[in-house]
Every structure is written in C-alpha cells, then in structure tokens.
C-alpha cells in the first residue's frame, strides 16, 4: 500500500524546480536572521529543506548574512551528518547495519546495493535516482537484515531480491 | 588568597589561579600540549591531568581553578598512567617521522613524550592518511602530523580574526581544515603564519625556498644579493643558543657573507627609503587634506587582510611598496646600473621574519624592474637552518657591516621590526619635512610597547598630528571599524596617520620567526631593536647618505615619477571566501 502512495508522490515531481528560483526564498530566511550567528543551525536546516542539500553558494550566502566566515559555516555543516553538501537523490536508500542486521547479512546487502548502483555510502547515483546511506538500527531487528527506501521498510532483504525492490522507485 | 597543597607542599594563590599556575609556583611542572600562554585555555588534549582528593575523575590542570583546602597530586601512579596513555593515543595516530620532520628537536610532542616516559607505542588501531595541503604560496599544512590541539584555530580566529581554519567533521575523522577543504591557498588566509608559530608539532610550516637559494649560490654565473629585514637581527641569535633579544646585526652580515652571497645588503636601507616615500605621501595628504588617514603598507599579511575585509579603505593605504619590495626593485634596476652588472643575472633573496612576504614577492604587481623583483624569500627559521647546514656558528662570528650601495641604515629603519616602529620613524622624518627643523626628542614612547591599539598626539608646528598604531589583526579590526564608521559618518576621521602590522608585536612576532614566540619573548625582541636604534649615530631616515645618493643619482626626489613607477603599487579587492582578486 505504502509503495503505491510513495510512487504517486514521486510521479508528481515531473518538473523539477530550478535551483536558481529558490534563492529568493533563501534570501527571506537569511533576512529574518541577519547578523544572528547563533541561529546558524536553524538557518542551515531551513536551507537544506529548501534545496535538498547545501551547495557552496548557499553556504556563502548564509555566512555573509549571519556575519560568519565561510569556514565557520563549513565546520558546522561537516560536524552534523544530517547536513549534506552534495545533492540527494529522489529516493533515499538506507541499509541497516545495527547489531541484528549486521549479523544477519546487512553487509552483504549493502555490498550488493553499492555494486548494482555503483555508488558509495553517502553518495548519490549520477541520474540522482538514489542516495545510499547506512543507518544503525531502525527498530526492525526481527526482520533483519532490514532496508529503508524513503519511508518504506523492507525486511529479510535477500541480495537476489534487492534490485527488484529498488526498481520500483523512479 | 586560597591555601591548598600540591604533592603535600603547601601553596597559597589568589582566587582564580589554575592548578597549572599554582604548581608552577611551587616548582612542579605539569606537561601540556594544547595549552599556550597567549591563548584561552581549552583543555582539549588532557595531558595535564592531575588527581584532586575527593574527586573520582582526574582534573585538567590548565582549566581547573584551585579551591580552598584541595589536596592535589600531580605525580601519583594513576596520573602518570593516564598521561602516558593519552600521549600514546596521540602518537598512535601521528606520523612519527621525527628524524625527517621540520620540527625535529623543537617539537612539543617530542618533549612531552620524553617527559612522561614513553618507551613504546601500543597498537591502537587505524591511522589516518591525509593529503598534505600545498595550495598556499606561503604555508604548508601536514594533517598527518596534527594532534588537533586547536592552537592554530584559536590564533587564526581569536587573535587574528581571519577564520581561515576550521574543524572538519567529528570523532576519529576530525581534522583541522579550511573552508570547503579547498586548502589554505584557496581560503581567506592572509599568510601571517601565526599558526606556524603556535603549532606545537610539525603540522604547519613555511613553504621552503632553501633549496632554490642553495642552487643559486652554487651557480657561478649568477650574482646573488641578499637583504635582511630589521626583525631578523633581533632573534636569529635564539636559533644559535643566544638569549631572546640578543642583537646580531653585524654577525648576520658576516654569516651571509660566509654563505657566499655576492652582495650582503640590508632591508633597513629600503626601510629608510620607505619612510621618505611614505612620509612624503603623508605630508602631502595633510597639506592637501585628502585621503586622510593614511595607513601604512609594509605588512603583506595586513595588506591581504585589508583587501579581503576592508577593501573600501584601499584609497587610504599608502601606495608605497614594503621595504622588501622597494629593495627588490632597486636590486634589479639601480644596483646593476651603477655597478655595470647584467640585471638578468641577478638573483634577489630576502630574509624575512614573515611568511606573508613569500606571497607578496609572488604578487603579479611586484615586477616593476621587469623581472620578479624578489626571487626567493627565506624566513628567519629557514636562514637558521641553512647556516647550520653550512656549519656557521653565528654566535662566534665577528660584526661586519652590510655592503654599499644598499646597506647603510639609520636607527629609524631598525625599529621597523617592532610595533609602532614605522610610526615613530615616519614621525621623525615627517616633522622635518613639514617644519624644516629636526625633532629634538626622538623617542616617541606612547607608540611603543605591546598594548593592542596605541594612540598619540604629536605637535608638528601648528598641527596636532593624531596617530594610531595597531598590531595583530584582531586589534587592527577594532581600530578599522572605528575609522570606517567615522569616515562613513562625516567623511573624516580623527586620525591622520595609522600604522598596522599583521602580527602581534609587529615583525619581531612574525610568522617566520623561531618557534615558541610567546608575547613576552616578542616584547624582548622589540626592546633589542630600540636598543640598536639608540646606539646608532644616525636615527632619522632622511639622514641616510646612501638614500640621499639614490635620490640624487636615480630617483630625483621622493614621490617623483620614477619613484612612483618603481616604488609604489596598488591594491585589489578580494573575496572573503577564497581570497582571490575580484574583478571590478
């Protein structure tokens, strides 16, 4: 069921919003926090929600607006794994490597995804269809090894069935 | 006052004293790594742990203030074990190439490892291998040697307010890096090199030109000339076991001659020349009432800082080149002309207390002679290394003068190396240029000393000349914010003339100076220069006979067309993100 919903959601994005058009909105966020370096994390959150990631130009505009140096902004972004400086794919693939999944073959599943999509952990495929990440336990230990695609949980993933699942996500 | 005991020895200290300071008072030394007397203590390395009776966990001595009645143990079995483990952990992820390391023998990590008694390093798992950052023309960063103490970060952000460095990532992956990991050469770094002076290990050091200079010296077809900055003579001695503040002007000339430089000149000569060019510019500005205040331009770290963070003040910066660059131009124009040499065969080397001078010499503007005016810049540290390689014991050398025609200097030139020195030298000559009379009392004390921003009012005839001096870029920022606001408000500032030096203490505290340059040591080096000034027969730049001859034979007069062509420059606007020039 949830597969269905997800697919519909993604099909709606037939026209990608151009990055250029998002900058006026960023300017509004920055204007509300002008010269308030203490609001940096909040501003970065909003900026990432807007752009999907934090490109160099966004970092520069945030730094300038909040009266910070670019290196200070960079330090905060690189500290928190939530922030990303490379664009994320349309679909987020998260392979669980928590204890249970680890012993039940999570590593093999991860290796297979990496090989099939030709991406490393934390990277995005060239066509921006998938981003691959590793998570530590999603509370589905009974279904180990588990994998998360967007909001859908898949349990007992077999390396032979993996691509079948991923193919469903455009 | 608070009473406590350290290793059963009673100690009485004022409230707010740290355990580290209290222990020193009763002659117990506690090993430290991240701690530096000129930085706010942070306690990041943990080497200074001690035991305090009643507390289950060990305390860090550098950040813990002594409280009443505490019984402190700095040398218990538990403390010794903890320290060893901490040092071992640092060493387990440190490229221990000590024999080939630039810091060999001067490394604080080596000292600590020896003092806490490390005999072997246990296996603690993986080591990181990171690329060495060679993107900068002045400074090299080797993250494989870095121990993450954070000193470089703090001097760059807190003292210099440049913020070129940052912590990247976290946990085991943490490293000191630059904006977007693009390297120092693609950052706001102004090349002041304070990070290289504050680094306890060999992770930050100057880009070396020693091999190029050896090669030139060994080539009989080339004519290699050398100039030495004022500040170098106040501390080269430290590298040869002399007391900080020993003055070695004469020995320095003798040593360079023994290294087989074809001509040993002196940057002090062109410092006197700078005063005449810059002083004339100030006097003209005061007479015409235009572009005041005039701000000095000798410090290339300051110049890049200004171009990056205060580009609107460019019109106020003296167009006079720094003494290094004035000398470089003359060494390839005036000098070969009067000596009948081929300018093409001249290699011009400078010895500077500074890493930013390396960047300055490679600026595209610095080619007025038709060649790169200064070919190679050596820091004081590099010269010391070369002299040791050549087997020269500076301490034992006789005093020798510099060569003509670019070697004579006055006391006004030698104090360029200390904060306030350029101001004092300029005032001595400006007074003469305005009034035609000589200033009687040459010691202008309010502009001397280590206070961050200094001000003085000097009566010159009817005019009360208001001057200010700032050293260290954080102090410069305070002064410049004030000046910028005044200029924005009413179009004029209360100051006529401002001296700014990028490094705390001025050039004696430069980023190319011997390791371990604390503020106290910088002050002693400055005093050595004032002592030389006092000992010299001539103490005003306009009395320099070689400079007078240069004007008579070659440049005509200060700020003449020829002088402008050869001895003046212009400035660009730079991006605060990558330090690169912005087209306007």
Structural class of chain A: alpha+beta
Biggest pleated-sheet summary of chain A = 4 strands, mixed
> Strand content of the residues of chain A, in percent?
5-15%
Question: How large is the count of helical segments of chain A?
Answer: 8
| Overall CATH class of the largest domain in chain B | Alpha Beta
Tell me the number of structural domains of chain A. Answer: 2
Instruction: Kindly state the number of beta strands of chain B.
Output: 17
Broad shape of chain A: elongated
Report strand order across the widest sheet of chain A: 2-1-3-4
- Largest interface, Cβ cutoff 8 Å: A-B, 14 and 18 residues
Series of secondary-structure elements of chain A, N-terminal to C-terminal? HHHHHEHHEEEH
C-alpha end-to-end distance of chain B: 61 Å
What are the SSEs and their pairings?
The complex is a heterodimer of chains A (170) and B (584).
Chain A: H1 2-11, H2 23-32, H3 40-51, H4 56-66, H5 70-79, E1 91-96, H6 99-103, H7 106-117, E2 130-135, E3 147-149, E4 152-154, H8 162-167
Parallel strand pairs in A: 1-2
Antiparallel strand pairs in A: 1-3, 3-4
Helix pairs in contact in A: 2-3, 2-4, 3-4, 4-5
Chain B: E1 2-6, E2 9-13, H1 19-25, E3 49-52, E4 59-60, E5 71-73, H2 77-92, H3 108-115, E6 139-141, H4 151-159, E7 165-168, E8 175-178, H5 194-198, E9 204-206, H6 210-217, E10 223-228, H7 249-258, E11 263-264, H8 267-288, E12 294-295, H9 300-309, H10 323-331, H11 334-339, E13 346-352, H12 356-361, E14 376-379, H13 380-389, H14 411-414, H15 421-435, E15 453-460, E16 463-471, H16 473-490, E17 497-501, H17 519-535, H18 545-555, H19 561-567
Parallel strand pairs in B: 1-5, 10-11, 10-13, 12-17, 13-14, 16-17
Antiparallel strand pairs in B: 1-2, 3-4, 3-5, 6-9, 7-8, 15-16
